[in-house]
C-alpha cells in the first residue's frame, strides 16, 4: 500500500515543516493510548565512554591527517560559493550555530519525530541537595528527560518507526557547514529492545562526524541506516542542510533514532592518547543550562506540542507489540462508500497540559458531521488517543470530508471521500481550510485570498490543471498533488513511506505562496527539449533536479560553478506528457518552477 506520508505537490507551493526530535524508546499498546509519560525517560541507546574515547582518538588522528593533506582549508570552500544569510557559516568561528539535524519532505503537514532524551548535564544532582549521586540526572530545563551520563540528544521517529526506517523517509542532514572527518558504515541497523543484546562492532553504529569551521567543534550523527550514508568521503566539505544519511537502529540502540552530539576542544595532533573533545549541550535557556546562549539557529521549545498524524482506515488499525515488532497491520483508506465503517486515528506529541482535544469531521459543505473528544490523563508525551469509528449512512452527502484537530495553536487536517468523484471543475473565491479529492482530474479557476488562514488542497489521481484566472495570492497556502482517492492509499498491510522530494531542507521556495520564480524555462510548453536559465550576481554553485508527477527524479545534473548566469539545455524527449517540477538548487535555496511537456 502507498503511504499516507507521500505528498507530491505539482505546481503548488511546497511548504516547509521543519520539526526535529531525537530518538528514544517509546511504549507500546494493544488497544488504546500508548507511549511514555512525561516523567523520566528510558535509554534508547547507550553510547559508552569507551565508544566515545575510541572515536575521539580517531577524529584527532584524522584531523591531523587531513590537515597534512591540505583538506582542512575551510576558507577555500567558503570562497567557492555564496551563502545566504543568516546562516551557521555567517556566525563567528568561535560560535558555531546549528540547524536541526533531521528533516522530512518539506511538504509534509505533520511532525515526524519527537525528542526523548536531552544531554545529562548533572550526573550528580539538580534536585536532591547532594553533589555526588551518580544516579541523578538533569537536562538543560532542570527536568529529567535524559538518562545518567547521556552526552547527546536522542530523536525518535513517528508515527510508525520501522516503516520510516525501512523507507529512509526521515533524512539526517548536516547541522552546520564543515568537513567530514570520520565516516563508518557496514553495521547491522535493526537492533532493538535490550541494549545489552545488540549486533555490531561499535555502539555508535553507522556514523558520520563533521568538523566545523572553528577547527575544534565537531558534530556526531549516530545509529544511521547501513548503505544510506552520504557519498561524500572524509575530507569532503559539506554544507548545512546537506544529506548525511537516514535514521535507523545501528549500534547499541533499542529502536530507530538519531543520536546527535556536539563535542568541542579537538586539536589537530595525531596523539591518540590525549583526551580532547569535550561534550557540550547546544540547548540553553534556564538556570540549569551550561551556557548562557543557545548553539541552535532556532532552538526548539522544551515542550513542543504537535500532531504526528491524522489517518482514516477501513478496519481498526493495529499497534506494535514491542520494540522489536516490525509488523503492524494498517488499513489506510481515503475513499469510502455508504455502509462502510471509518476508523479515525491520531498520534500526538507533548500532550502534557491536561487539555481535552476535540476532533471534528466536516461534511463537503463545511458543516459538522461528527465530533469526539479525548484526554491524556497520564500525560504521555507521545500518545495515540483511542481510535474512533463511525459508519457512513446512505443519507450522508458525497464528496470530500475533512478530519481535523487544533493542538498547540495549529490546526491539522486530513481528507477523505464518500463516493469519490471522478473529476471536478472549480471556480470562484475559496477560503479557510478546504480540500478536494477526486479519482481523475481537477480543473480550477478559483482564487485564494492573501491570508494565513487560507489553506487549500487539490488531490487528484490523474492531474491538476490551473486555468487562466486561477490565483493563489501571496500569504495563503495552496498545494496540489496526485494523491487522490486511489493514490493516497491503496490496499492494506504495513505502511510504506515514500522517499522525500529532496535531500536537504530550508530552501527558499520562489513559487510558494504565489511568488514569481526567477527561473526562466523556454520554450514552455515544450516537446521535451527546453532551456533552464537562472541569474544571480557573482559566482555561485547550483544544480538542477527535475521530477515527474510521482516525485521520481527524471533528470539531475551535478553541482557546477556559474558566473552570473546558469544556462542549461535539458532533454526530456520521450518522457510522458504532463507537468514536471524543475528545481534549481543553489547554496541553501531551492527555486521551484514547472514545465509542461506536450
Automatic annotation (TrEMBL):
Q: Which keywords fit this entry according to its UniProt record?
A: Signal
Q: Which GO terms describe its molecular function?
A: metalloendopeptidase activity
The residue ranges of the M23ase beta-sheet core domain are 150-264
Chain segments annotated as transmembrane: none
Q: Which SUPFAM superfamilies match?
A: Duplicated hybrid motif (SSF51261)
Please list which residues make up the signal peptide: 1-23
Secretion system C-terminal sorting domain segment(s): 521-597
Query: Which Gene3D superfamilies does this entry report, sorted A to Z?
Result: Glucose Permease (Domain IIA)
Enumerate the NCBIfam families for this protein.
GCX_COOH, Por_Secre_tail
- What protein is this chain from? Peptidoglycan DD-metalloendopeptidase family protein
Record lineage: Bacteria, Pseudomonadati, Bacteroidota, Chitinophagia, Chitinophagales
Amino acid at each position: 500500500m502507498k503511504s499516507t506520508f507521500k505528498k507530491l505537490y505539482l505546481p503548488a507551493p511546497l511548504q516547509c515543516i521543519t520539526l526535529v526530535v531525537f530518538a528514544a524508546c517509546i511504549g507500546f499498546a494493544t488497544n488504546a493510548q500508548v507511549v511514555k509519560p512525561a516523567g523520566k525517560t528510558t535509554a534508547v541507546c547507550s553510547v559508552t565512554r569507551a565508544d566515545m574515547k575510541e572515536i575521539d582518538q580517531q577524529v584527532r588522528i584524522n584531523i591531523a591527517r587531513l590537515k597534512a593533506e591540505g583538506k582542512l582549508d575551510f576558507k577555500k570552500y567558503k570562497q567557492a560559493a555564496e551563502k545566504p544569510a543568516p546562516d551557521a557559516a555567517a556566525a563567528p568561528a568561535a560560535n558555531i550555530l546549528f540547524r536541526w539535524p533531521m528533516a522530512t519532505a518539506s511538504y509534509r503537514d505533520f511532525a515526524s519525530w519527537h525528542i526523548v532524551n536531552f544531554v545529562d548535564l548533572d550526573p550528580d544532582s539538580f534536585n536532591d541537595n547532594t553533589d555526588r549521586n551518580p544516579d541523578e540526572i538533569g537536562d538543560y530545563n532542570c527536568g529529567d528527560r535524559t538518562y545518567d551520563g547521556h552526552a547527546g540528544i536522542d530523536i525518535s521517529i513517528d508515527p510508525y518507526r520501522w516503516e520510516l526506517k525501512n523507507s529512509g523517509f526521515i533524512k539526517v542532514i548536516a547541522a552546520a557547514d564543515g568537513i567530514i572527518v570520520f565516516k563508518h558504515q557496514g553495521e547491522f541497523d535493526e537492533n532493538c529492545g535490550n541494549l545489552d543484546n545488540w549486533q555490531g562492532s561499535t555502539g555508535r553504529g553507522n556514523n558520520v562526524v563533521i568538523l566545523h569551521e572553528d577547527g575544534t567543534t565537531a558534530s556526531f550523527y549516530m545509529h544511521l541506516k547501513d548503505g544510506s550514508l552520504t557519498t561524500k568521503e572524509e575530507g569532503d566539505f559539506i554544507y548545512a542542510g546537506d544529506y548525511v544519511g537516514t535514521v535507523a537502529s545501528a549500534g547499541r540502540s533499542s529502536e530507530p533514532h538519531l543520536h546527535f552530539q556536539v563535542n568541542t576542544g579537538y586539536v589537530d595532533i595525531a596523539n591518540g592518547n590525549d583526551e580532547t573533545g569535550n561534550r557540550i549541550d547546544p540547548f540553553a535557556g534556564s538556570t540549569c543550562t551550561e551556557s548562557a546562549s543557545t548553539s541552535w539557529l532556532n532552538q526548539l521549545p522544551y515542550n513542543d506540542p504537535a500532531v504526528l498524524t491524522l489517518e482514516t482506515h477501513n478496519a481498526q488499525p493495529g499497534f506494535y507489540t514491542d520494540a522489536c515488532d516490525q509488523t503492524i497491520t494498517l488499513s489506510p483508506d481515503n475513499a469510502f462508500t455508504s455502509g462502510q465503517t471509518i476508523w479515525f486515528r491520531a498520534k500526538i506529541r507533548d500532550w502534557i497540559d491536561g487539555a481535552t482535544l476535540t476532533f471534528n469531521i466536516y461534511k463537503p459543505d463545511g458543516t459538522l458531521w461528527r465530533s469526539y473528544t479525548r484526554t491524556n490523563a497520564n500525560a504521555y508525551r507521545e500518545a495515540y488517543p483511542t481510535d474512533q469509528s463511525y459508519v457512513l449512512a446512505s443519507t450522508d452527502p458525497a464528496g470530500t470530508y475533512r478530519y481535523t484537530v487544533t493542538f498547540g495553536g495549529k490546526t491539522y487536517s486530513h481528507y477523505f471521500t464518500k463516493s469519490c468523484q471522478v473529476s471536478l471543475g472549480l471556480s470562484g473565491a475559496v477560503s479557510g481550510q478546504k480540500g478536494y479529492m477526486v479519482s481523475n482530474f481537477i480543473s480550477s479557476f478559483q482564487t485564494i485570498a492573501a491570508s494565513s488562514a487560507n489553506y487549500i488542497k487539490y488531490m487528484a489521481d490523474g492531474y491538476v490543471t490551473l486555468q487562466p484566472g486561477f490565483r493563489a495570492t501571496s500569504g495563503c497556502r495552496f498545494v496540489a498533488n496526485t494523491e487522490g482517492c486511489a493514490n493516497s492509499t491503496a490496499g492494506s498491510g504495513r505502511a510504506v513511506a515514500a522517499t522525500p522530494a529532496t535531500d536537504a531542507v530550508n530552501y527558499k521556495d520562489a513559487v510558494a505562496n504565489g511568488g514569481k520564480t526567477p527561473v526562466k524555462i523556454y520554450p514552455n510548453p515544450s516537446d521535451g527539449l527546453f532551456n533552464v536559465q537562472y541569474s544571480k550576481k557573482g559566482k555561485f554553485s547550483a544544480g538542477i533536479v527535475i521530477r515527474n508527477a510521482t516525485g521520481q527524479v527524471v533528470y539531475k545534473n551535478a553541482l557546477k560553478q556559474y558566473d552570473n548566469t546558469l544556462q542549461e539545455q535539458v532533454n526530456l524527449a520521450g518522457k510522458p506528457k504532463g507537468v514536471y517540477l524543475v528545481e534549481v538548487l543553489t547554496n541553501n535555496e531551492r527555486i521551484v518552477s514547472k514545465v509542461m511537456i506536450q
